[in-house]
């Protein structure tokens, strides 16, 4: 059972308190060397689809709609994501992203989704 899932930008220094660090972006962050990122798992399958990612990029003022669409994507793919989700059920988990505003991105949506999966 995960007691804590935190969110960090990939540009923030990795710390031992982070626990398992999971990159949850579809694309590898520009200018970040893999050995310096401190990423344990790259779970790009948990990121929004390329179509949804591009849609949100051109409709960034529609965060609520993006939230709905992303949750639908996660729910529709839940059976294929089960193995990855089980792997992430750690005492400490840090979702890592390169987005400029993590609080207004897919990551808090994913965080709530994972917490709900782990509480089952």
String of helices and strands: EEHEHHHEH
Q: What is the tally of beta strands?
A: 4
Number of helices: 5
Large-scale geometry = globular
Largest sheet, strands/sense/barrel:
4 strands, parallel
Low-confidence stretches: none
Give the tally of structural domains.
1
Structural class: alpha/beta
Distance between the termini: 9 Å
Helix content: 40-55%
Give the spatial strand order of the biggest sheet.
Answer: 1-4-2-3
Measured by DSSP, the beta-strand proportion falls in 15-25%
Overall mean pLDDT stands at: 92
Keywords:
alpha/beta, 4-stranded parallel sheet, 120 residues, 5 helices, globular
Can you give me a brief rundown of this structure?
The protein has 120 residues and is of the alpha/beta class. 42% of the residues lie in helices and 15% in strands.
